[in-house]
Design brief:
Layout (H helix, E strand, L loop, with lengths): L2 H8 L2 E4 L6 E4 L5 H6 L15
Antiparallel strand pairs: 1-2
Length: 52
Amino acid sequence: MQARDVALAARFSARQASGRAILELWAPAEQLPEVNARIVGPIEPVRSFLPD
């Protein structure tokens, strides 16, 4: 990760999604084009949590 990407991520807050251990980085909708432009390569899930 480059310094400019860390600086971008630092502008947003991490919020709990559906549980205490699940955090998401929340970016305002108007800034999503800038966030999306910095995604390089595929996003690969490392773990999934499915309902029983």
